[in-house]
Amino acid sequence: MSCQVLTRLIQGRINELRSEQVRLRTFIESDQSRWEALAKAIDELNWVLEWVETEKKEKQLG
């Protein structure tokens, strides 16, 4: 799987999680643990996305 494909897949998943998080906003007080789990998943995927993009740039330069 190419870095470009992986990047698109990760970004798509981040967008899905953010959409879910927005829908939960009205239930944030009653569903705080779910909100926190989504926030953590988004943060982790953003980290992976940054790493993939860095690797892609390094390969292009190298």
Would you kindly provide a written description of the structure presented here, covering whatever features stand out?
The model has no long low-confidence stretch (mean pLDDT 87). The chain has 62 residues and is an all-alpha fold. It starts with a helix and ends with a helix. Helix 1 (3-24) packs antiparallel against helix 2. The chain has one domain (3-61). The protein contains two helices and no strands. It has helices spanning 3-24, 32-61. The protein is elongated and about 50 Å long.
What's the structural blueprint in terms of helices and strands?
Elements: H1 3-24, H2 32-61
Structural class by SSE content:
mainly alpha
List unreliable stretches of 5+ residues.
none
Average of pLDDT: 87
SSE arrangement, N to C:
HH
Describe the largest sheet.
none
Amino- and carboxy-terminal Cα gap: 20 Å
Percent of residues in beta strands: under 5%
Shape: elongated
The number of helical segments is: 2
**Domain unit count:** 1
Percent of residues in helices comes to over 70%
Count the strands?
0
How big is the Rg? 15 Å
